[in-house]
Amino acid sequence: MTAIIELDNVSVAFQREVVYDRLSFSVNDGEFLCIVGPSGCGKSTLLRVIGDLLGVDMGGVTVAGSPAAKAWQEIAYVFQSPRLLPWRDAEANVILGQQLRFGRARSMSEMRDKARSLLELVGLGRDMHKYPAMLSGGERQRVSIARALAVEPRIVLMDEPFSALDVTTRRRMRTEIVEIWKKTGKTIVFVTHEIDEALELADRVVVLSAKPTRVLETISIAAARPRNLAGPELNAARARLSHLLGLSGHHQE
Ligand SMILES: Nc1ncnc2c1ncn2[C@@H]1O[C@H](COP(=O)(O)OP(=O)(O)OP(=O)(O)O)[C@@H](O)[C@H]1O
How many whole angstroms from its chain centre is CA 206? Predict the structure, then answer.
């Protein structure tokens, strides 16, 4: 398997606080990788480092074979809050993501076609002309997923994208993101603080310690999807994750 993201002995400190002290791990091309760890250990910061929104003090970050600074076009983000412009409908929000990325290099009709096909993909084929205020929380987050995919990244970085949604919607979104991942073949790096979310989604789960943060363990989950969260394989992985997170001072909500 080829790595598409590699962190090699990365150190980051804010003022005098060390967040990572020689953190290393890699993400395989096309895999669904979840990152879990205690609050404040630097999960969001890790996505910023991968996307070159934050430089590192030491070590190397390689994305698709280049230093992270040269690879931003390979990456798109989905945040916890969808960050849509309220005065633009769903389609226009997805177009805006492309305008910001491609400028005039892509024609309006091309961007519109792309927006429409991706809004179909995320199940919003009938809601393309609704404004954010007319959409549910889950629908808004689907728009932000379509917007991320529209810039044709190889990698989608997702920072607790479903944690603000109600339980039922969150469950549905988990099933859907697996379908979208299968259909698009993207590499997904997904930050979550919920063990069951990681168990349902991930090929591998990277468990981080408290600061100064290091990788406590990487757990592979081979169970076929859709997954039976009550099955023996996932029960074993759940027990291991709970143990590791307990060690790191993590508390489930
Ligand atoms: N710009 C900044 N300046 C100073 N400290 C920062 C800055 N950004 C993050 N930090 C600190 O770095 C640490 C990691 O923050 P980060 O948001 O990445 O954690 P997290 O694991 O995503 O937390 P949570 O699970 O609570 O969302 C925290 O202690 C935070 O206070």
Answer: 13
